[in-house]
Amino acid sequence: MKMKTTTIISRLILWATALALWACARPGTPDGGPYDETPPRVTGAQPADGATNSRSKNIDIFFDEYVKLERAAEKIVVSPPQINMPEISASGRKIKVKLLDTIQQNTTYTIDFGDAIVDNNEGNPMGKYTYTFSTGERLDTLEVSGKVVDARNLEPIKGIIVGLHSDTTDTAFTTKPFDRMARTNGSGEFTIKGVAPGAYRIYALQDADGNYAFNQKSEKIAFSHQIVRPRCFADMRADTVWRDSTHYDSIKMVNYTHFVPDDIVLCAFGETTLDRHLLKAERKVPEHFEIYFTGPSDRHPIIKGLNFDESKLLAEYSINNDTITYWIADTAIVHTDTLRATLTFMENDSVGNLVERTEELDLISRLPRSRQIKFEQEAYKEWAQKQEKRKKKNLPYQTEMPPERLNLSISCGTTLDLYKNIVFESTEPISSADTSMFHLYIKVDTLYVPAPHIVERNADSRMKYTMYGEWRPEQQYALIVDSAAFKSIYGKESATQELRFSIPPLDNYCTFTAVIEGRNDSTMIVELLNNSDRAVRTQRTKEGRADFFFMKPGTYYMRAFADRNGNGKWDEGNYALNLQPEEVYYYHSPLRLRAKWDLEQTWNLSSRPLGKQKPMAITKQKPDKEKKIQNRNIERAKKWK
Fold first, then answer.
1. CA 21 to chain centre
2. pTM of the model
3. What local confidence, expressed as pLDDT, does residue 423 receive?
4. Which residues, 6 or more positions from 452, have their beta carbon under 8 angstroms from its beta carbon?
5. Burial class (CB in 10 A: 0-12, 13-18, 19+), 567
6. Which of 266, 337, 423, 504 has its CA 20 to 30 A from that of 197?
């Protein structure tokens, strides 16, 4: 009996132990007890955090619970930069770091984990953590911080490297890795830690090849002429004490060490490559072919046909002459599957000098003549079948297939804004336009009477014409364009076009004027933007004012840039030429324009720091979501009441 009782008690103990182990194996559940909401805590490190005269490449950091790393490659930054990426891993209650580069003498090393460290069970964030040691007798503790934005639109740039060079010459950025570095977060903000006293130049770099130096044109960069001299001083700040997640209890003053500079703003840009080389030549359709270059030029290339007459080509050039479209005006040449030609152009040699080069081209149509004939036959067969069906049904039918019409679009709907004109655009070059075939009428009482207008070819394209009229508010217009008003280089003629449209009343519009303080020149160009950060109206300032007439009511945003070279568009910088990108500014608040209102807004471009100008409503790169302990025990307690 005693043996049987002992056996039962043993079984009960084993069962209770198993139950306890099962509950412990399921933390954070109603059956397993409260959720773990305690963040991991560092209990020690080898070598010690803040150690000096340390030469070890192997670092162990110990915690009071099991931990793991989230997005380690994105968040963890080692400084000085490591050419061979360190091996960093979490195992149980330890994080192991193995440095693979040669250890530098008398240097402070920082391993900035950001918020990558969380506990293994619930993912409770430890918060920002940086491990530091020095290979010399001194531990450098100064910090430099700021923000990196895109130079064109002041968008925060996430994940770009920001580095310091104690070598303040211009060549350091292109020949040496950084002395110290950091990486920007979702708000474009950075903090470079472990900095020694001294003078530095600061740069940003989207490092494409991992050498921490600018030597590829594809790398986005930012540079500053400012000499950075880091320092610190004792300061006080106001900290909010929160009662809960929505109510604060009090504000108290806290002593802290203030590191400066902490307000650096770097404007990053991608250099427009100045190296000019022939990229490719292709002939997607028989009627034209394109020549692509890698960079701009102020000279047009010279093409000479080897099996065709080059005088039958019509060239359309891009703004920078880096893309040229050659339209073939002779149908006999169009029907030639392979065109052979020589192209003489300017390109950069190995040392960057522009030299003349001639290259032979084989321009092979992707749509050979045999396939063209097949498509034409199929189109004719389809047309003939339709006419035969109409004939059998005693319906009107055609005896000859009509010629293909010129495809023409007109930029006008049922209404036309006062500030716009009517643009006609074809899909192929126009050889002639008979302006006498354009008839514009305005409705007076019940009759349409001729209205004054001018039709002109656009200077930048052989395929566009614009009609300019004296548009009157609240009036109705009729436009008739006779058949064959336009004729293409292939003999295609436009069909008859008829449309009616009206001009909205003045009450539908408003006037907006931007007054730029301290800028009375005409170098500033002001852009009104929609809620997608796209320009809808653009105006150059005159005596510091930019007037926007006939604006539609709505919410707009405002951007301005300094058009230093007067070309009417924003331009990138160039490091080799020591040229910064053209300055861009944002008005910090939305502009709400109302019908029949005239609004004048004075704008001091420097009234706010550059990194804080762009409204968050049109900022696409949002801040990283802050990791927080979820406080699920409160909800759990409510359920179990």
1. 53
2. 0.81
3. 97
4. 440, 469, 470
5. exposed
6. 266
